[in-house]
């Protein structure tokens, strides 16, 4: 499996990172300097409002929009001290872990289960008993705000390194659940035991830490500890609201989180960005620094690899599939509907087998499109109906397998009696479509506008209202050109009858530069004064 990471930053306003696998675009990340990106950043904020009805607090953390903090995201230390005490910030009364086994939740000590890494109390106290208006809290943005909703915050701080994630103030160490090989887990436990993390600081070994040496892990731990000390110093020095820590730029984040031994080459088309990435690799992963290359070709990088056309298709509603089928993706504010169509796809076998093979192809493409478009929330997949239970289970498995490489958390349900597979996908930031496009000012995002006939009928209805007004002697109506043409051609007789019967002068003005639904009335009385109408 050959992977390449292509980084396009030739335009200073936008950074695009594509991950290719055997020549196929599998992942795409786009970030613009004009768009706020707060996910992963740490702030010292102040509680501005408590809402007991939804068990949440709203936090001013200095970005102009208050963040949403639910009681489930409030760290237990706040139960003890009520708000943030900088002098006792993240003190952990229990000693540092003497064994990585304890972090994994193995039983020990008088038959009681030790707390697992990331455990949260089963019963949360009411938020109004934990926090007060004016309290200071150290928060991290875990989900970007979109629409009218502000960013989602958490007091469970986590700072990712290359191989480890620093998670103060847990005071224990653990292994990522995604590392399922017991031998690898045992080796990593021994390494973390030998490194002896300082008291009161927690670490989780990431999947990238598999088969890493003790020296590599030690360097990553030392880097994270230096970073945490600087965060604590800044937290104690400044009052809220203030930014405490900002995540790295997208290039460094993506290399840190996505680079694996399977990535044979990283190409960057801008010298300054190349230098930043080279310094990061030489510091964190010197072994792989030679895989980083500066692209100096005359043809733009993404054009050279045929990605511009592929990216253009990402925004299309209909996605063609191999063999003649297609999937249709419709996105609303809270739900994504995906419909699978067989089209001209045919096999030499039965109709049931034909539907099954089409659904398998669609399941893989659906997973890919969800990653590329960064769609989140509730997703309903309408697959071609299949009667046999083994085929339904096969499609479910294919979708599960295809979603395994997705970094966002997902949950997939069983096939419903109507042939639907419902799922959820973690929404961290607005989708790629929301980031690149804006709602059409003409149709306000619906994709449809009224016809000229509909607008003309609306004009005639308002004219009937004007007949009841004795103070109006002159009316002007401004509409789109097509509407004006329709009225003047199809409604000429009715307009003449209206003027004679109501003694009102009517003038219809058509303009090309306005919306098809544009409708503005102006009315005057016999003295020339403007009259409010309708």
CATH architecture of the largest domain: Beta Barrel
Per DSSP, the total helix count is 15
Q: What is the CATH third-level topology name of the largest domain?
A: OB fold (Dihydrolipoamide Acetyltransferase, E2P)
Q: Would you state the CATH class of the largest domain?
A: Mainly Beta
The total count of strands amounts to 25
How many angstroms separate the termini?
68 Å
Average pLDDT reading = 84
> In total, how many domains does the architecture comprise?
4
Quaternary structure state of the chains depicted: single chain
Describe the structure.
Residues 90-121 have low confidence and may be disordered. The protein has helices at 77-81, 100-103, 127-130, 182-195, 214-237, 250-258, 271-284, 301-304, 307-314, 351-373, 389-403, 432-436, 452-466, 481-490, 492-502; strands at 3-8, 14-21, 24-32, 42-51, 56-60, 67-70, 136-143, 152-154, 159-160, 164-166, 173-175, 203-205, 242-245, 263-268, 292-294, 318-320, 326-331, 335-341, 377-382, 410-412, 420-425, 474-480, 505-511, 519-524, 530-531. By secondary structure, the protein is an alpha+beta fold. Helix 10 (351-373) runs parallel beside helix 11 and helix 13 (452-466) crosses helix 14 (481-490). Strands 4, 5, 6, 7, 8 and 13 form a 6-stranded antiparallel sheet that branches. The protein has a 6-stranded mixed sheet with strand order 16-17-18-19-21-20, covered by helices on one side.
Helices and strands in order:
Blueprint: E1 3-8, E2 14-21, E3 24-32, E4 42-51, E5 56-60, E6 67-70, H1 77-81, H2 100-103, H3 127-130, E7 136-143, E8 152-154, E9 159-160, E10 164-166, E11 173-175, H4 182-195, E12 203-205, H5 214-237, E13 242-245, H6 250-258, E14 263-268, H7 271-284, E15 292-294, H8 301-304, H9 307-314, E16 318-320, E17 326-331, E18 335-341, H10 351-373, E19 377-382, H11 389-403, E20 410-412, E21 420-425, H12 432-436, H13 452-466, E22 474-480, H14 481-490, H15 492-502, E23 505-511, E24 519-524, E25 530-531
Parallel strand pairs: 1-14, 11-12, 14-15, 18-19, 22-23
Antiparallel strand pairs: 1-2, 2-3, 4-5, 4-7, 4-13, 5-6, 7-8, 9-10, 10-12, 16-17, 17-18, 19-21, 20-21, 22-24, 24-25
Helix pairs in contact: 10-11, 13-14
């Amino acid at each position: 499996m050959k992977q390449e990471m292509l980084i396009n930053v030739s335009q200073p306003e936008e950074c695009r990172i594509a991950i290719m696998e055997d020549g196929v675009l599998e992942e795409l990340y786009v970030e613009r300097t004009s768009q706020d990106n707060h996910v992963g950043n740490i702030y010292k904020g102040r509680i501005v409002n408590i809402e007991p009805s939804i068990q949440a607090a709203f936090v001013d953390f200095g970005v102009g929009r208050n963040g949403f903090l639910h009681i489930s995201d409030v760290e237990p230390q706040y139960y003890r001290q009520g708000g943030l005490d900088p002098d006792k910030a993240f003190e952990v009364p229990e000693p540092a872990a003497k064994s990585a086994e304890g972090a994994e939740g193995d039983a020990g000590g008088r038959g009681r289960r030790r707390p697992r890494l990331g455990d949260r109390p089963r019963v949360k106290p009411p938020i109004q008993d934990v926090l007060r208006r004016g309290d200071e809290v150290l928060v991290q943005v875990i989900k970007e705000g979109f629409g009218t909703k502000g960013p989602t915050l958490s007091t469970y701080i986590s700072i990712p390194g290359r191989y480890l994630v620093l998670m103060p103030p847990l005071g224990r160490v653990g292994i990522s659940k995604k590392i399922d090989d017991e031998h690898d887990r045992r080796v990593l436990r021994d390494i973390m035991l030998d490194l002896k993390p300082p008291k009161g600081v927690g670490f989780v070994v990431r999947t990238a830490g598999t088969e890493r040496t003790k020296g590599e892990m030690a360097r990553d731990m030392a880097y994270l500890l230096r970073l945490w000390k600087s965060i604590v110093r800044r937290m104690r020095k400044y009052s809220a609201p203030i930014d405490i820590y900002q995540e790295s730029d997208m290039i460094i984040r993506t290399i840190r989180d996505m680079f694996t031994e399977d990535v044979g080459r990283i190409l960057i088309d801008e010298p300054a960005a190349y230098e930043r990435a080279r310094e990061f690799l030489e510091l964190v992963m010197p072994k792989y620094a030679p895989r980083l290359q500066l692209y100096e070709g005359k043809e733009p990088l993404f054009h050279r690899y045929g990605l511009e056309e592929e990216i253009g298709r990402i925004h299309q509603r209909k996605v063609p599939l191999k063999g003649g089928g297609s999937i249709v993706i419709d996105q609303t504010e809270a739900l994504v509907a995906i419909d699978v169509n067989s089209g001209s796809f045919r096999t030499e076998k039965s109709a049931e087998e034909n539907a099954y093979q089409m659904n398998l192809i669609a399941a893989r493409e659906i997973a890919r499109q969800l990653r590329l478009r960064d769609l989140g929330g509730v997703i309903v997949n309408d697959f071609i109906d299949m009667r046999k239970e083994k085929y339904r289970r096969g499609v479910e498995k294919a979708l599960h397998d295809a979603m395994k490489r997705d970094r966002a958390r997902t949950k997939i349900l069983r096939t419903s009696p109507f042939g639907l597979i419902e799922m959820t996908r973690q929404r961290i930031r607005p989708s790629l479509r929301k980031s690149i496009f804006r709602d059409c000012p003409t149709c306000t995002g619906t994709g449809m506008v009224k016809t000229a006939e509909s607008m003309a009928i609306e004009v005639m209805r308002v004219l009937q209202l004007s007949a009841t007004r004795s103070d109006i002697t002159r009316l002007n109506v401004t509409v789109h050109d097509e509407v004006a043409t329709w009225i003047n051609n199809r409604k000429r007789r009715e307009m003449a009858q209206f003027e004679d019967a109501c003694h009102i002068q009517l003038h219809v003005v058509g303009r090309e530069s306005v919306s098809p639904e544009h409708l503005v009335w102006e009315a005057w009385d016999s003295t020339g004064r403007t009259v409010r109408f309708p």
